[in-house]
Every structure is written in C-alpha cells, then in structure tokens.
Amino acid sequence: MKTGSRPPLLFLASAVCLLQLPALAQETPSVPAPGTPSTTSAVISSAYARDPQQPIDQDYTAKIKQYTTEPYFNSPLTDYLPASKTVPTPEKVLGDVSGAPNMLPYAEDVYRYFRLLAASSPRVKVVTIGHTEEGREMIAVAIADESLLAKQKENDARLAQLSDPRTIHLDDKVAAGLVQQSFPVYYITGTIHSPETGAPTALMELAYRLAVDDSPYIQYIRSHMIVLITPVVEVDGRDRMVDIYKWHRAHPDENYPRLLYWGHYVAHDNNRDAMGMTLDLTRNVLNTYLAWHAQVLHDLHESVPFLYDNTVGDGPYNAWIDPILAGEWAEIGWNNVSQMTALGMPGVFTHGDFDTWSPGYLMFLAAMHNGISRLYETFGNGGADTEKRILAPDEYERTWYKQNPPLPVVEWSQRDNNNYEETALLTTLSYFAQNSQQWLENYYLKAKRSIEKPDSSGPAAYVISAADQSSSRRAELLQVLTLQHVEVSRLSEAATVTNKPENPTKSSAAAKSQTFPAGSYVIRMDQPYSRIADALLDRQYWAPDDPQKHPYDDTGWSFPDLFDVPTVRVTDASILKAKMEPVADAGAPEGSVSGSGAVVAVNNSGEITLLGLRYALKDAKFSVAEQAFDAGGHHFAAGSLLIQNAGADALQAAMKDADVEAVSLGAMPSVAVHHAPVPRIAMMHTWIATQTEGWWREALDKLHVPYEYINTQTVSREDDLRSKYDVILFAPISRANTQSIVNGMPMWGNPLPWEKTELTPNLGRIDSTPDMRPGLGESGVEHLRDFVRQGGLLVTAEDTAQFAIDEGLAPGVFVNRGEKVRVVGSVLGATFVDHKNPAAWGYGSDLAVYSADGMAFTIGDMTVPRHLETEKDYQRPTGRGGPQEADIPQGRLAVQPETLPSPKPWEATPLNEEEARNNPYLIPVQDRPDVILRFVGAKDLLLSGLLEGGGSIAEKPIVVDAHFGQGNVLLFANNPIYRGETIGSYPLVLNAILNFDHMAKAK
Ligand SMILES: [Zn+2]
Questions:
Q1: pLDDT band at 1001 (very low <50, low <70, confident <90, very high)
Q2: What is the rounded CA–CA span in Å between residue 457 and residue 444?
Q3: Which of 200, 270, 293, 894 measures 20 to 30 Å from 234, CA to CA?
Q4: Concatenated DSSP letters for 822-875?
Q5: How much distance in Å is there from the Cα of 360 to the middle of ligand 1?
Q6: Res 49: pLDDT
Q7: How far lies 101's CA from each of 113, 198, 383, 386, in Å?
Q8: Cα of 190 to ligand 1 centre, how many Å?
Q9: Phi and psi at residue 737, to the nearest 5°
C-alpha cells in the first residue's frame, strides 16, 4: 500500500503498492551477496526443527528449493513441506507448488483448495463471510487443533464477554478467569490490493502447514490459538489481475495492460474505506473480525523490499488509540524483526515512513475496535514472473532500523515472496501463541478502557440535536456509525448539559449550557467501540512543524464537518444519566408524505436524495421552486421540489427510501418554478485511471441515480453528445494533466486491450476497449465544446477542472497558484457567495469541504490571466505628505487619478474604460463566471487536518459556474464526492444535475 497521500500517482495507478509492474520476464544470473549467511545457527535450527517422524513431500520440497533464488531467502520453517497421506497440498489445485513461477490462481481455485483442506482435515473450517459488489464470494478459513475448533463456540462466548466488559460489570477478577480459559483468534487478510499477488498461494501453504505439520513449533501454534484467514479480500480485482497476468503470459513479448479496475468502484483506495464503510469488502471483514472476536487484524501487502512489518511505522500515531496498542505494536513488530534477522533473512524492518494517523486502512478496523492492527509489505513482482529487481539507494542503504538491509540487486521470485510472508507469519504466530494470555488481557483491558472513556480522557458523548432538521445526511452519518458497530441512543426526554470550555488555557472562556430536545441522538462514549466514534466525530490537527513531513494519507476527516451534520462534543458526563433508549437501526430511512393533495412538496435542505426521487418517480411531473415559499404550514427553501401526477403508494415508498418528509399541498404555490425533466447523465472516464471517478459511481449507484458510463474514446467518436445527454460528469482522475487526457498513452508498441475474451473473462465488464492507449483527442475536446455550447452541463473537479480551463471551456476561470499553501487531505471552511445558483440551493451559509492539496480558483473578466492594478497593489511614491497622502507635483494643478478597484479575493478585478477599450478578450457580462462557493478567511480556514500558508488561498473561489455558449461548466477545486466521506458536498453536484438547464444567468 505504498503510496503518497490521497490517490496514487497517476502513471503508477496500478502499481502503487509495489514499486513497478514487472518488466518482461528475463533470465538473469543469481546475484551473489557477500557476507550474507546462508545457514542459520544450530540453536536456531533446532528451535524450528521439523518432526523427524513425519515424512516430507520430496517433490514439493525440491520445487521450493528450485524456485527460491537464494538460500537466504528461505528459512527452516518453510524450506520443506511435510507429507500427508490424507490432506492435499496446494499442488493439487495449483498444479505446482505455492509461489511457483508463471502462474496465479483465481479466487475460486484458492477457495477450492481451502474447501479440499477443510474436507480432509478436522483442523480446518471454511465459512462464507459475504459477497462483493460484483457478487463474488468472500471466505474465511479457521485453522486450529480439532480440540480447539470443537470448543470454539464456548471460547467465543468468553471472548464476547471480554470484548464487552459491561457483561461482567467490568470485574477484573471475572475477566482474569475468562482469560485463563480462553485462546485467542488471529485474523490474516490477503490481496486487498490486486497487483500485490503473492498472498493467496502463501496463505494456502501456510494453512496446510498449520493443519499438517507435526513439528513442536507448529503444534504449539495450532493448539493455542485459532488462525483465521481471508485469502482474497478484493475478489473482483483478483480475478481481473489473474486475467491480466494470463494475457501477459500469452503475449510474452508485448507490453500488457495495467490493471485499470481493481474492485467494482475503486482500486488502491479499497484500503482507505475503514472510516466510511462504503465497500462490501470493508463491511465483510469488519463483521468477520468482530463476530470471531479476533485480537489481531493482519493485512498482507506487497511493495517494499523485502519485508516491511509496518506495525511500528512512524509518528504521528492516531490520536484516539489506546496507548496499550502502541506498546503492542512495538513489542510484536520488533520481535518479528529480531526473529527474522536471526533466521538470516535480509531486509526485514518495522520502523519506517508509514504514519498511523488516519484510521482509513483496513487493518485499522482492529485498532479502532480494541484489537491490534498489523500490516506486512513484502516484495512483490506484480505477478509471478521471476525477475531481476534493482533497488533504489534509500531502499538498500543501512539505517539504524535496517541493520540488515535489503540487497541492492536481486533476482526475485514469487516463491521468495511467499517464503518471506509465511516465515514472518509463522514466527509472529508462534510469539503470539506463546504469549496468548497477555493479548487476551490487553483485549479486555482496551475494551474496558474504551467504556471508561467518559471518566478518563472524555468526552462523555457526542450528541446530534433533534432541534436541527432531520436529513438524509444525518441518516448517512448514523448509518456509518451503525456499520462500525457503534451503539446509538435517542433521548426520551430533553437533557441539559454544561460543557467545559474547549480551551482550558483561556481563563476567560465560560462553561456553556445547552439543551437537547427529546429525540436527539446520543453516541455514548461508555461503550466498547467508543474509539472509532470518537475518531470519526472529533476534529484532527496536524501541526505544520510536525517532524513527519510526509503524511501518508489524509490528515483530516472530521465527519460532522464533511457530512454537514452539526454534532456536539459533550464533556459533561451528566448526559450519560439522561433518559435514553438504544436505537436498533440508526440511520434507517424514515421519510413519508403527510396530508393529501394534488401537489407534493419536498423541502430542499441540502438533501442527497432529491435527485434520486426524480428517477424513482420518473413519470411524475416535477417542478423546482426558484425561490423560498411558505405553504401548508411549512417553509420551503429555494430549490424545493413540487411533484404532481404521482401515485400515492409510489410517493410513500419513494419518500421513505429518500428519507425526506414530504408535504401534500392543495395546489401549486404561487412561486416562480421551472419544469425539471429527467436528466440524462453520462459519466465519462479515461483509460488512464478510474479510481477517483469510482467514488462518484459508487455515490450515484447508492443514490439510485442512473447514468450511462462512457469513456473519452466514445466522446472522441460521438459528434452529437447533446442529443443523447443533458449532463456529462467528468470526475477527477487524480493528478492527470490536460495533455494526457487529450493524448492518452503513447501510441508506440502494441495495443493494450481491456476486453472480455476467453482468455480474460473478467475484463471489459465495467467498460471495454480494444486499446487503452488513445485519449480524448482533439475531436473529443471539440465534441465536448459543442455539447456545452448547445446547452449541456459539464461537471468537472480538480484535474478535470484544470482540463476544462486549459481547453477554453471555462472563460474567466483560472487555477490559483497558492504556492505557499500546504494542505494534505484536510477539511477546510467555505462559505457561499451566491445562493441563487441552483447548485447552492438548500444550503446554509457555510460548508466544510475536503481539499486534497489546497487547490483554488481566481476569476477574471477576461479570458486571459492578465494582472490588473488594484488598490491593494498600489504603493505611493517618494514625495510630499504622509504615507496615506498623495504626492503633488509642484507648479501645476493636481489631477485626480482614476480610482483603483479593490475587488474581494473571490471577485474579478473590473477593467477601467482604458483597459476595456477594443479588448477582444473581455468577456460579455452575461458570460462571466459565477462564483458559488469560496474559502473563508485565513483565520477560520482550517477545520481539520494540516494547513500551512492558508493566506494564499483564503477567500478564493472553489466552486464556480462558468458559462460557455448556451451551456455551463461547473468547476470544483475540491473533490465533492470522495471516499463516501464528503456527504455534505454531494448536493452541490446533485442540485446542478437536477437543474442542468437553469444554471445560467437569465440572458
Ligand atoms: Zn498494498
């Protein structure tokens, strides 16, 4: 999962967790490594000795040796395979040994093996844990001595009590008894990142060893703990990766396509979903982890040579973890390094550049649910080719934490990778088994301390007041908490709290009383999973001078800000004594229609579900109110919907699903309205990268908003886009530039197909092309221009907004080069400039936005970025008078100069008569861009995360509606639809789509 913050580097999109996809297989001589021990000491060897009574599988063992490129890339734990008369080895399914060159198994083959194992060994159990977005199965495999598996139910009941100490009244003595009788569960997950291909075969062989090997070392593990394995986390992506690899083997002398789609929606970001819980794989893994009451979640990745156990990582550590966890990380991580180093395997380390600040990683589900998160990066070749790998100096140089660093040049095989993965896991499982009581004690202690949070560090609770309007955004936030297994309660009567001042060092700050009405939601911190709720609902602060200069991912995520749901952090513990009831399914939709009448009105309060209503009731007549109005005893904001000719049952069902309270009116209110036809949406993607737009697809699918999925090559061929579509969404690509969007990839070499064929049955299903290389082309750019000119709406963000600007589609809009600003995935404050633009309908005055890097716009009245002198620029010359007075030339009359303009940072600088005269670049008034949203001032800009040099983007525009011909181009400097976390800014896009033909100013 090696990557910088946020989305992966564009051209490494499919190779982010590894350094690069492999070059074509080539025969290279093995590289000697002077001074590297080839055998381990006799003492070590005896500790890992196999059972001499148990025969070994001679053929399998010979192949392990053959495929391992150097003896020191293996260990006494994995340099042989015990034989069994009854239990099949991985060879039975693979046709070769685990980690053999030139072959990757599909997920179903991996599963077939585990089921064979379960059928032939009482020490193995396989269960289905759910399915993926594309319907593929996910499994978990439990391995332990049959006596343990027989007692698993009773053991699980004990672990359940330890995981929720309220069940034993926080009684340490009872807990000690439970710990003594119990054995732990260690959960290992493989291949969440599809180009990181080694884990499934390593885990197949590991399972065989754990089930079959009679060496005391292995016996001890399986008789003291359950090892739980999900061999393939991203099943959809695994099958596509195997297709790609098969294509490569069938075309050995050609370039082969990069893995453009991993999961159905996102690629590398599937390992950033542990906050938003948007993807099936995240939910399935968390549900499994919690259902088995596991103590560890250990996720396998491949990128760094040769084994980076990033368990220890680097600071800053996430601010909401229990300090006990930091100790566990250090103990387990450094133990792993010393064991592996003692085995003579080079290149194993645990301290490194990975900070554990963000809780978005899959493994972090454990860290935030009272377990232990762990992660290995081993060295992968992005397939099963054996290759010469050349390391960079910072990879092979010795440092204090890499005393036996990786070798600078190696011949590396998939088998080497499997040896490292298996040896590291076995040594760590052994250490874990030997200290199992300690982990169980800590498991209990961390849960207990989570429950004691209100009395220790606080807060006592978070409250979402019922005084604030109900909304689909609030439902989304509650839904996330529910998916995180957080308990949510509701006040049955009003409660008043007195919060201590936020900043206790300011003596002037007074305590603040606040009353929450009955029905308010309370997220109590005296519950076992209080940590994840606290981490999501609190704000983050990353000091600009923190020693860690390279945040690994987003630095801020505060969900109440990003969901636009006011949430109060309550420190007053009296809230916990207020009368409240637990809510079984917080966030379940509960909308309805009240009253009866010919017109049904739905208020626009920044809901994310209004656009979906347009499709759910597609035969009804929809109008949109252009101003606020009052009717039926209710107030309706501008942008509210007025629905006619819909059946009563369909209306009730649609409103419930949309989670909105609709009101029936006797007649249409007297307010200006426009007709809202069903928008025809196209979602355009490139063949460069699809991850960031994948989050947009995920959001639209979830909101039941249909769209046609097209690509830049379609657009280059389609010369009448406007007759087919009303809206084209061109979501961010992630650090693409305009040239690459237009030109695509270089055209030398062979075509790179992304198609469903007999050889590649899993490709081409989401979209397909015979050749991924061509881009949008000049014709595509012209077709997009025609589309907008003829009245279409083009929606762009970040790099695609830059594209629209570069291609002249957004006259008067420029990217603000705030070179001094430093933002790394932060939450920043913004305020609306223009509430009249339909995109802004339903919003209050302010909105928090996710900003990847501090991008902003500037606005001009010309199509060229020419600097015009303003009052701010003017500095008086040397002469008479004080600093604020004018100089006066002597001996003639003084002439008053033209007043210099003083525009606000979000406004264009007006031209004076001289500048405007005969100026072909001057944009006609009605065609000048409208600024909808801008950043707030520097002082209030940072809400959450890292911000330095905010002055250079303060008050600058971030959402702008540009006009081109009859149509509009909506430009976002933020990404409004991101990782299922930016619910609050979704309506900006959804409103614009619903009102696609009413975005422009009246002409
Ligand atoms: Zn990875």
A1: low
A2: 18
A3: 293
A4: EESSEEEEEEES-SSSGGGTT--SEEEEEESS--EEEE-SBSS------TTT--
A5: 13
A6: 76
A7: 19, 11, 9, 6
A8: 10
A9: -110, 165
Angle, to 10 degrees, between the axis of helix 414-434 and the axis of helix 436-451? 80
Of 277, 295, 288, nearest to 367 (Cα)?
295
| Percent with pLDDT over 90 in the chain | 90
Ligand 1 centroid vs 174 CA: distance in angstroms?
41
Four-point Cα dihedral 970, 971, 972, 976, nearest 10: 30
Return d(Cα 677, Cα 529) in angstroms, integer: 46
Contact (Cβ atoms closer than 8 angstroms) between residue 79 and residue 65: yes
Task: Tokens 């554990």: give the residue.
Answer: 356
Mean pLDDT of the chain: 94
Pairwise CA distance, residues 5 & 717, whole Å? 36
Task: Determine the distance separating the centroid of ligand 1 and the alpha carbon of 364, expressed in angstroms.
Answer: 14
Q: 281 CA to middle of ligand 1, Å?
A: 15
- Which candidate, 704, 724, 701, places its Cα nearest to that of 714? 724
CB 781 within 8 A of CB 807: yes
**Calpha distance 547→554 (Å, rounded):** 17
Q: Rounded CA gap, 659 and 669, in Å?
A: 23
Q: Which helix (H) or strand (E) holds 727?
A: strand 727-730
CB atoms within 10 A of CB 536: 27
DSSP 6: S
pLDDT digits over 486-502, tens only? 999 999 999 999 998 76
Residue 938 alpha carbon to ligand 1 centre in Å: 36
Question: From ligand 1's centre to the CA of 376, what distance in Å?
Answer: 9
Q: Kindly give the distance from the C-alpha atom of residue 50 to the centroid of ligand 1, in angstroms, as a whole number.
A: 33
Q: How far is ligand 1, taken at its centre, from the CA of residue 303, in Å?
A: 7
Q: 367 CA to middle of ligand 1, Å? A: 18
- Average the pLDDT over 55-80 and give the result: 97
Q: Which residues have a Cβ under 8 Å from the Cβ of 834 and sit 6 or more positions away? A: 840, 930, 931, 932
Using N-to-C axis directions, what is the helix angle for 323-342 and 436-451, rounded to 10°?
160
Q: Which residues, at least 6 apart from 11, have a Cβ–Cβ distance to it below 8 Å?
A: 688
Q: Tally the C-alpha atoms within 13 A of residue 97's C-alpha that lie toward its C-beta.
A: 24
User: Which residues are 584's β-sheet partners?
Assistant: none
| DSSP string covering 251-269 | STTS-------SSSS-SGG
CA 405 to chain centre: 32
Residue 20 has pLDDT above 50, yes or no: no
Instruction: Evaluate if residue 39 carries a pLDDT over 50.
Output: no
Name the pTM for this structure.
0.95
Cα 331 to ligand 1 centroid, rounded to whole Å: 23
Mean pLDDT, range 973-1002, rounded to an integer: 94
Q: Band the pLDDT of 587: cuts 50, 70, 90.
A: confident
- Answer yes or no: are the C-beta atoms of 361 and 375 closer than 8 Å: yes
User: How far away, in angstroms, is 299 Cα from ligand 1 center?
Assistant: 9
Whose tokens are 């009368």? That residue is 579
> In angstroms, what is the span from residue 309 Cα to ligand 1's centroid?
13
pLDDT at 11 over 50: no
d(CA 117, CA 20): 34
The predicted pLDDT at position 507 comes to 63
